[in-house]
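re: the backbone from monday

yeah here it is again, tokenized this time
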């Protein structure tokens, strides 16, 4: 059984001690790189 895509690209929230999820750093960096390349 494969984990859901949301689970794979997110990590537990440190503010709510894991009851929610936030974007994983790798996902965030990828989005930033994409936006920078789009602007150039």
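seq for it, each position gets an aa:
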């Amino acid at each position: 059984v494969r984990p859901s895509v949301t689970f794979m690209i997110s990590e537990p929230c440190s503010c709510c001690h894991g009851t929610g999820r936030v974007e994983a750093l790798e996902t965030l960096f990828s989005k930033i790189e994409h936006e920078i390349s789009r602007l150039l």
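The beta strands are 10-12, 21-23. The mean pLDDT is 86.
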